[in-house]
Amino acid sequence: MAGAPPPLLLALLGLAVLAAAGGANAAGRKTVGVYELRKGDFSVRVTNWGATLTSVVLPDSKGNLADVVLGYDTIAEYVNGSAYFGALVGRVANRVADARFVLDGKVYHLYRNDGKNALHGGRRGFSKVIWTVKEYVGGGDSPYITLYYHSFDGEEGFPGDLDVYVTYRLSGPYELSLRMNATALSKATPVNLASHAYWNLGGHGSGDVLGHTVQLLASRYTPVDGSLIPTGAVAPVAGTPYDLRAPTRLGARLREVYGGRAGVYGFDTNFAVDGEARALRKVAVVRGGGGAPGAGRAMELWADQPGVQFYTGNFLAGVEGKGGAVYGPHAALCLETQGFPDAVNHPNFPSVIVRPGQVYRHLMVFKFSF
Fold this sequence. Notes:
370 residues; mainly beta; nine-stranded antiparallel sheet; five-stranded mixed sheet; 29 strands; 36% strand; Aldose 1-epimerase; Aldose_1-epimerase; isomerase; Galactose_mutarotase-like
């Protein structure tokens, strides 16, 4: 999704970066590190800086391995980067209009980091903090890591204390699950977490995703204004460029869609996922396409949220990433399951309010094949 806070000028020289693998329990560890989960030739790396997914390595049909998520080589680059590569964003993902909302009669003002709006939790959202490693098992039948963050009352303007957990798990053969829980402790508060991974099934440095095909199981979407703020409507996709219900080659569709800025094209759009709300259901299917590397790879996304933000990397431009790769526009795509953007200001949207003692729950499952 587009938008970027000003860089945080933090020095990480005193923080150890761990190339962690194996079966050690790391309960309570506050060191910033990189932790690997591995099952055979399928591996995932996560850092507790921003609960960020830094790599997903898997084979193609010929056994060639590739890392299929965009990212950086060092933690320092994640600290100062502006693209939210792989980050866990919150307390409220996506945009909040005018960086304000009213809850139980009280007006709350948030940090403006996207013009006059708030984006992805503000200047110091969940993607720009150190999470605590609660549990870590790097190998075995079901490798996983659980991370924890306590968000304090008033952080970035949001009300109430919030305990947040996310677990990354290799939950099956070539299957990655993300389970997010957040408990409101003291006040009612909006909660809308999202994983902001950038996917390119040909490999993170293989060029653009215009040859990928995408299918979204969504019959409706939320139109936006020129600032990418929802108008409040939930409109049918039928007869519009947003109709991706059948597998659609991205290169044939992107130029039909306004990308959020003059001269910019591509998707940055919330879709209302078909099916029962809060039930785990198929959201999207993505396939590598053409003669590109990794063309045989495919990814299914299952989730239990009412919406999914589909973003096609419209604002990437000359970003230097892992291994010296340079990411340009449409170098990847994002599928961020979520509550609807700006739901706090649209009573007709599914509520994102969590009251004291209630638990926010969000499950995503990525199923890869080749």
